[in-house]
Specification:
The protein is α+β, with helices and mostly antiparallel strands. 54% of the residues lie in helices and 19% in strands. The protein has a single domain, classed as GMP Synthetase, Chain A, domain 3 (2-Layer Sandwich), CATH 3.30.300. It has a three-stranded mixed sheet, with helices on one face. Helix 1 packs across helix 3. The mean pLDDT is 87.
């Protein structure tokens, strides 16, 4: 039974990625799917997405496609009930960039203070 659930989870992951890549037409901007989590009872799917431009605006556009993605997924899968889908904005890229900028600025500040390096 465990293998069957894992196969269904993998199929959900694959199908959602295909739907988002090839079937969404509402101009959500350029985004990537960082991760997809499916609950053990297959009732809910969390799709983590990150955007390269205007993340909040494009995320709101993507939220409007939730019903379409769910119905497309139901057509592809042969399940009794199609899982609910929730999009989550993954801003890890922007957090990582901000930390790198802070570290770089800190390094630049210590370089100007350290008289041995001048």
């Amino acid at each position: 039974m465990g293998n069957q659930k894992e196969r269904v989870k993998a199929a959900i992951d694959k199908d959602i990625r295909e739907i988002l890549q090839f079937e969404i037409t509402n101009n959500c901007g350029f985004f990537t799917v960082s991760r997809i989590d499916v609950t053990d009872d297959l009732s809910y799917v969390r799709v983590y997405v990150s955007f390269f431009e205007h993340p909040q605006d494009n995320f709101e556009k993507l939220q409007k496609t939730k019903g379409f993605v769910r119905s497309s997924l139901a057509k592809k899968l042969n399940l009794r009930r199609s899982p609910d889908i929730g999009f989550i904005l993954d801003d890890g890229f922007f957090k990582e960039k901000r930390i790198e900028d802070i570290l770089k600025q800190s390094k630049d500040d210590t370089d100007t203070i350290d008289p041995k390096k001048n």
